[in-house]
Structure formats: C-alpha cells, structure tokens
Specification:
single chain, alpha/beta, 11 strands, 384 residues, seven-stranded parallel beta sheet, Rossmann fold, Rna Polymerase Sigma Factor, Chain: A, binds manganese (III) ion
C-alpha cells in the first residue's frame, strides 16, 4: 500500500500538532510531505527533524536563516513567506493538504491547493465562511474533495457516508454552549479572557476557544455547513448539548435521524479526514454510556449570545456579508484577547460592521480581499 503524502499548513498549532500525533501513530498509512508554520520556528524545526518532510515553509521571513541552517544537514527544502506557502501546496508529490491555518490567512493557500487538484482536509473553517461559493465552485471544477475536520462537520460527513444520494431534510449542529452557558448579559459585561479561554470540553487554539465562548464559532460552523453540504440556511439548526458527546446529526427526508457520537477528541475527526474512506484502528479513549447517564439538550440563547443570530443574518444576506462577519470577528477577538474591549463588545463590532460595509451580491476573489481589508479598518476605528 502506498502511503498518503500529507501537507500540513499550520503544523505548530493545535490541529497541526494533533494531526502529527495521528500520523506518528500510523507511519504505514501516512507520511509528511510538507510542514508550514507562521512564527514558531523552534517547533517547526523539531517537527521537521522527527517527520523528515520534503519541504517546510516558515511564514515569518525573519526566521528563514535559522530554519534553513537547522534543516540543511537533513536535505529538507526550506522556504519563507506567503508566496512560498501558495506555491509549495502545488507540489506534485502531495496527495492531501490539511489546512489548519487560523482565520482569513487560510483562504489563498487553500485556493492554490484546489487549483492544483489537491484534495483538502479542511480545518480552517474561516475559508468557507469568507468565500464558500468560490471555494466550492472551484473544488467542483477541479474534481477536488473537501473533507471536513471540524468535529461537527466530520460528524455530519460520517452520517452521510453511504447516504450521498439521499437528500438531507436538515442538519442539527451541536454546541457545547461554552464556559458562559446559562449566563445573562449583565453577568458577561466584565468576564475576562482567562475565563473565556477555559473551555469545558475541548482543548483548542485561542481564537476558536473565544469564538466558542461567544457562540461565534457555532455561527461560523452554520455557514461552513451550508457550503460543505449544499444546504439552505433554514436547513441548519443549532442545539446546545453541554456534554459534547453527540457531535452533530442529520435528519433525512423520511424523518430518520443519524448522529455520530464519541468523546470530545479532535484526533478522531482529524484521522477520519486524513484516512477517508478508511477507518483506522486507534487507541483513543472509548466512550462509556454509564459515565454519561444524562445527555441533555437546550435551545441556544441568541438574546445573550448575539453572534449566532448575526451569523444567520450574514448567511441570509449572502454575498460578501459572511466575509464581513468573519473579518469583524477576527479583529474583535484579537482586541478582546489584548484586553482592549469587553466580551459583549465583540458582538457590537460585528453588528456595526455588517451595517456599514457595502453589500456585494456576487463577489469575486478581489471583492473578498477588499471587503476583508475595509472591514478590518472599520472595526479598528470602532474600537479606537
Ligand atoms: Mn467545531
């Protein structure tokens, strides 16, 4: 059996390191072809020494010499900068590109990889939020498959295996509710980033953890699901399920519903995306019903957590509005992480950007680029 050659964009982040754990456990199935990191040169060097890829890219030019010197004796090619990222994903030898970059930065390299006909394991949900129509159209043209890594979308994908010809009536995305579930607005005015960064169930990067606390993560996932599975907004429902055992559900046209369950462990959806269509034996901890006598469900509180409603609004308006939502949120999260705005202000900024930025009905790539730029400027003005 030939091994799948994987390029990991963002190998030093939470998804990237867990993907390398999966690959290390199955050297007979996978090999690492490319690793890329934005700033963490030390970890990138360490990973390259362990996995011996064909090439690595360090985003930060200033660290190029350091990485090059460290990997020269191993004959690993070293590149630096954004353009290098865009060209390295097109290398002939790559079978699958795992996009684990954070935020908008994932858009261009994902487009380049699809243009080169590479199948994508998509962990960077913002790519589909910003430019879902463009990405999915391009993928269809190029005959490229996009395998979801996000646990909810992986769950839906797993429910759909063997059902691809059967229409979906609706999907139900589950949400943990985050660390502030049950709280009201007046209790959220003064919450700190330390509190927001304590997710009850999942261990993830800072951006997605803040998004989970504000329910923006679920909003972004609603948009991501729309594009991955070709749905109308009305076919996407969100239910709060604090135990994070059911990772999401699909209801078919006969009324039957399928769910995918398991302990919250990102390695499982990562491994499923990398290994598809095969399920690979793992030693991940197994779920035990006796340990969870009560799996509970409740409606999301969109009065308090307005981001989820704002995401549905952006999706309903379409065009460049999801791109506005994403850019405004990326700025808001950064400002919150730097203690410059409060938790509730994040939604204010997103809402105001959605009303201030000009609507573009059928955006091309440059419209997305401009919308992203303009939104970031407006969002920063609103803060200062
Ligand atoms: Mn998720």
């Amino acid at each position: 059996m030939t091994r799948k050659k994987i390029a990991i964009l963002g190998s030093t982040g939470s998804i990237g390191t867990q993907a390398l754990d999966v690959i290390a456990a199955h050297p007979d199935v996978f090999e690492v072809e490319v690793l890329t990191a934005q700033r963490n040169a030390d970890l990138l060097i360490e990973q390259a020494k362990q996995f011996n890829p064909n090439a690595v890219v360090i985003g930060d030019d200033a660290q190029y010499e350091k990485v090059k010197a460290a990997l020269l004796p191993l004959h690993i090619k070293v590149f630096a900068g954004e353009n290098a990222l865009a060209s390295v994903v097109q290398m002939d030898s790559i079978n699958l590109v795992l996009t684990a970059l954070v935020g908008y930065s994932g858009l261009k390299p994902t487009i380049k990889a699809i243009e080169a006909g590479k199948n994508i394991a998509l962990a960077n949900k913002e790519t589909l939020v910003v430019a879902g129509e463009l990405i999915t159209t391009l993928a269809r043209e190029k005959g490229v498959n996009i395998y979801p890594v996000d646990s909810e979308h992986s769950a839906i994908f797993q429910c759909l295996v063997g059902e691809f010809h059967n229409p979906i009536e609706k999907i139900i995305l589950t949400a943990s509710g985050g660390p502030f579930r049950g709280k009201k607005k007046n209790e959220l005015v003064h919450v700190t980033k330390t509190q927001a960064l304590k997710h009850p169930n999942w261990t993830m990067g800072a951006k997605v953890t803040i998004d989970s606390a504000s329910l923006m993560n679920k909003g972004l996932e609603v948009i991501e699901a729309k594009w991955l599975f070709g749905l109308n907004p009305a076919q996407v429902e969100v239910v709060v399920h604090p135990q994070s055992i059911i990772h999401s559900m699909v209801q078919f046209e006969d009324g039957s519903m399928k769910a995918q369950l398991g302990l919250p462990d990102m390695r499982l959806p990562i491994q499923f995306a990398l290994g598809y269509p095969n399920r690979i034996k793992s030693d991940f901890p197994r779920f035990d019903f006796a340990q969870y006598p009560a799996l509970t469900f409740e409606k999301p509180d969109t009065e308090t957590f307005r981001n989820l409603a704002l995401a549905f609004e952006a999706l309903g308006r379409g065009g460049n509005m999801p791109c506005v939502l994403n850019a405004a949120n990326e700025v808001a999260v950064q400002e919150f992480l730097h203690d410059r705005i409060g938790f509730l202000q994040m939604s204010d900024i997103v809402e105001q950007c959605l009303s201030k930025i000009n609507y573009v009905a059928n955006p091309a790539l440059e419209d997305y680029v401009n919308t992203d730029k303009e939104t970031r400027i407006i969002a920063k003005e609103l803060i200062n």
